[in-house]
Amino acid sequence: GEDVEQSLFLSVREGDSSVINCTYTDSSSTYLYWYKQEPGAGLQLLTYIFSNMDMKQDQRLTVLLNKKDKHLSLRIADTQTGDSAIYFCAESEFGNEKLTFGTGTRLTIIP
Amino acid sequence: DADVTQTPRNRITKTGKRIMLECSQTKGHDRMYWYRQDPGLGLRLIYYSFDVKDINKGEISDGYSVSRQAQAKFSLSLESAIPNQTALYFCATSDGEGSGNTIYFGEGSWLTVV
Fold first, then answer.
1. Minimal Cα distance from A8: which residue of B?
2. What angle do CA A32, A5, A93 make, to 5 degrees?
């Protein structure tokens, strides 16, 4: 079946850029997503990218997709304390009917 | 008010007991999902429903059942709870249009089985 992998932890100094990486195995993935989960809260969709794109930028967020290597990354510019959360990568073959999630990366901001 | 509401938010139950988690949504979406979150494992799909009375098994359906009697409601049941079902459970909804900005998650239900 599909597999989505992420590192479990990332620590970044406040003001630096954070780069969260994700790899996936399903070559039929059509949509790739980044979700943010703050403590005690549900998942919030941050951004998504279609598999025929290689980059998407939205304010401080930049998503890069290397379809050949099945590698997705999320860059957060000027990381702030409010960015502390768990970030999940997810993929879907037919849109959002069924998402396969990665393990989540816990981003910790160092003052 | 939240678009996707889960009840209860927290529950402790004993092994062997039946427990139901309920989910209601005000989005008018046809598609609803139950996910389970475990540390280090991300979210895994338990069951999903594309319409009233439509039920489909997800990745980890064993030990669970669901009911979709109305468009706005999707309930998850553990007929005989066991400790390894201790987890955070999320309900989600989508309109199924295939775009990435139309899936909504509830705030989660913490279930502890002792």
1. B40
2. 35
* SS3 state of residue B75: strand
Share of chain B above pLDDT 90, in %: 72
Residue keyed to tokens 């109305």: B70
Torsion of CA A29, A31, A36, A37, to 10 degrees: -60
At a CB cut-off of 8 Å and minimum separation 6, what does B67 contact? B74, B75, B77
Tokens of B78: 């553990």
Euclidean distance between CA atoms A60 and A39, whole angstroms: 21
Residue A78: which residues within 8 A CB-CB, separation 6 or more? A15, A17, A60
Q: How far apart are CA A88 and CA A22, in angstroms?
A: 9
Q: Say whether A96 and B50 touch across the interface (CB within 8 A).
A: no
Q: Which of residues 62-81 of B touch A (CB under 8 A)?
A: none
Structural contact between residues B86 and B78, judged by C-beta atoms closer than 8 angstroms = no
pLDDT tens per residue across span A57-99: 999 999 999 999 999 999 999 999 999 999 999 988 765 467 8
Distance CA B15, CA B113 (A): 6
Nearest one of A54, A25, A48, A26 to A36, comparing CA atoms: A48
Q: Give the integer Cα–Cα distance in Å for B98 and B106.
A: 20
